[in-house]
Amino acid sequence: MKKLIILGAGRVGSAIAIDLNKNYHVTSVDYSESALKLLEKFGVATHNVDLSFSENITSVIKDCDLVISAVPGYMGYETLKTIIEQGKDVVDIAFFPENPFDLDKLAKEKEVTAVIDAGVAPGMGNIILGYHNAKMKIAKYECLVGGLPVVREWPYEYKAVFSPIDVIEEYIRPARYVQNGQIVIREALSDAELIHFDGVGTLESWNSDGLRTLIDTMDIPDMIEKTLRYPGTIEYLRVLRDTGFFSYNEIEVNGQKIRPIDLTSKLLFPKWQLKEGEEDFTVMRIIIEGVENGQNKIYRYDLFDKYDHKSKTISMARTTGYTCTAVANLLLNSMFKHPGINPPEYLGEKEENFNFILNYLAERNVNYSISVK
Description:
Layout: E1 3-7, H1 11-20, E2 25-30, H2 33-40, E3 45-48, H3 54-61, E4 66-69, H4 73-85, E5 90-92, H5 104-109, E6 113-115, H6 124-133, E7 137-149, H7 164-172, E8 175-179, E9 182-186, E10 193-197, E11 201-207, H8 214-217, E12 222-229, H9 233-243, E13 251-253, E14 256-258, H10 260-272, E15 280-292, E16 295-306, H11 315-332, E17 340-342, H12 344-348, H13 351-363, E18 368-372
Parallel strand pairs: 1-2, 1-4, 2-3, 4-5, 5-6, 6-17, 7-12
Antiparallel strand pairs: 7-15, 8-9, 10-11, 11-12, 13-14, 15-16, 16-18
Helix pairs in contact: 1-11, 3-4, 11-13
């Protein structure tokens, strides 16, 4: 039986470990003993270690067949680099801010297949775009995506399944999109729009830096990704951001130097934390316009996924985690082998990969509705 190491036992990392443990020998590695104890109830082997030290990562992955990195974004790049240096194939969902292609040469030298951004968005959106880009001349790509609690609680009407600092990064990192073939950079939370979604109601969309690798890998004149939240959320976030609560620059308070973002994270996390059994949902809409076989075509993909009561798995862990585990199965079954850094759009180029991932998700009741005009 093949051996897998999952680095990170958060909500998404845990869903990944439980899913893959059905067919492989999985060991989940994390610093949190409480998170690991929950996984042990599902028969997942665990290892309690501090992953902020590269030597610890090197030690725990030395005998495995595949590594999955589900660490917080601020640890992601160095963690991925360490994994590649050890010659291990890897699927990564850390969503770190650094340029992953800076590790491409190293991955090729080590003959490592590294699939990055293998979540829902980035991730599944890239896979869908890669599939259609291989079949048609695309003029426009738009992705709207968000994960939200079913019950709206004042003031933020939001719950985080990732580390608070990773979430805050979405609110401060400049948003890049492509318009008329040119890269446009706008501040995060800009260009708000109200959009209706069946089964959900009206949500507010705003510019976020979600295109990531697509800016470099796709020659498409118009591409944009926007994040979805409940209406009114943006104003709260703008107030915090523009006051300096999200700043990384140290300030002095009563003789002590602190980073405002550390304080903000500490205060916000209890507000953003999903309670046991609290329901969430994921909504995503992808629209792809272009010319296929001489005809104008518009493809639309809609996802609406909810908390799974049977397995008690939150939706964002399902939609992100099961995309990751689908990709992991591609590598483990030798269906994808391509040394270097591989963003998800590379996987979508092959129809068999695309269909495998869609079917894998559907088997877990993560269903994409597809329409064509």
